[in-house]
Amino acid sequence: MTKRRYRYSYSPSPRREGVHRVQPRQTRGWLLLALVLVLVAGAVAAQKALGSDGDGGAAVAHSNCWTQVACSAEEIQQAQESAQPVDSQTDDEAPEVSAGEPDTSEDQAPPPISAAAAVVIEEPCGAVIHGFNTHARLSPASLTKIMTALVAAERSDIRQTVDVTVDGGALSEATDATVMGLSPGQQLSLTDLLYGLLLPSGNDAAIQIAEQVAGNVDDFVRLMNEKVDEMDLNDTHFANPHGLDEPGHYTSAYDIALLGRQLLNDPDLAFIVSTRSYQPDWSGPPFANLNLLLGNYPGALGVKTGYTPQAGHTIVAAAQRDGKRFIVSVLGSADNFKDATALLDWAFSKTDSSCDTPGGSQVAANP
After folding, report:
1. Residue 301 has pLDDT above 80, yes or no
2. Which of 86, 99, 336, 362 is least surrounded by CB atoms within 10 angstroms?
3. Of 3, 114, 139, 145, which residue is the catalytic one?
């Protein structure tokens, strides 16, 4: 039987290395001189085309890129080539355009993204200010672990000590999915397991938590689905606590955004998902958070990322600044960080607030 392969962690596409050719020695000097002349002429032409704001094209190209990890050199070049010339203006008049600081002069339409479904929620009222395919039932991948953490925190004392029985190495070899690195015989706190669940997205942590809280995985999954019913999540059903693709395991962009919102209402869990690295009480290495928005997107709060071949890239992301907080969910994405960043930028650029209008909490998403 062929082993099923799963990939959970996010790996940015590597940049292509440039190809360098060495010119013959006798022609190198003339070619160098010609190159300098071409570059000077090109710079002058570009300056005239863009007006006095010589960085205008670059600003447009980078406006939706939170970091070079999310925008490859090829994408930046394409954006620069498609950017329209801007009116001539002085440096004092030139607007500053950068990731996380969108132009708020007027409300813009929501940006196009690669995802199959998405939702944007405004806090504190919970109004859905944008969404598409909001109730489509899709694979959540590791976003499942949001519910795993909620049930664990609700049903157990997270300070308790856990006698580890799960072999993370064996699990990784069997499923090719991410693990925190558990070994039978270890003793760790449930808090350490929650960090291992939510930062490196450990499947071994999910199974160990399930067994600790409910005695076995099946009973824990039952508790997960009881929580689904309690929250009236009509388009969600869980078949496991970790998120590996399985029949009957699905959620929607709307439902998973509500679960992310619920997690942020728990101070302990909210603190965990906002942590970029954590050293558990063991002799092993610290954990790194797979959510690359933390430390790169202004005001990022978490929450969770995921990936499987069936689900594609998924994320529930939240950010807060200037008195505003938004929660974004993205399912079936080609680039979850880029899509989440574009939606958050758009949300922060809005000049009005749905939470300030009567019935704002009842704003409905597009079907």
Report:
1. yes
2. 362
3. 145
- Unique residue bearing structure tokens 């969600």: 236
Q: Which of 48, 72, 82, 142 is catalytic?
A: 142
pTM comes to 0.71
What pLDDT does residue 357 have? 67
Q: Where are the domains of the chain?
A: 28-82, 117-362
Q: Which of 96, 117, 116, 92 is nearest to 105 (CA)?
A: 96
C-alpha span between 269 and 1 (Å, rounded) = 39
CB 138 within 8 Å of CB 117: yes
User: Within a 10 A sphere around the Cβ of 241, how many other Cβ atoms?
Assistant: 29
Concerning whether 354 is annotated as a catalytic residue, the answer is: no
Active site residue 201: yes
At residue 67, the 3 state secondary structure works out as coil
Q: In the annotation, is 52 catalytic?
A: no
d(CA 117, CA 134): 6
What is the predicted pLDDT for the residue at 32? 41
Select which of 201, 252, 329, 333 is catalytic.
201
- Six-digit token pair at 30? 């003339």
Based on the number of CB atoms within 10 Å of its own CB, is 150 exposed (0-12), middle (13-18) or buried (19 or more)? buried
339 touches 317 (CB < 8 A):
no
Contact 56, 50 (CB under 8 A): yes
CATH architecture of 117-362: 3-Layer(aba) Sandwich (3.40)
Residue 60, pLDDT above cutoff 80: no
Contact in structure between 89 and 97 (CB atoms under 8 Å): no
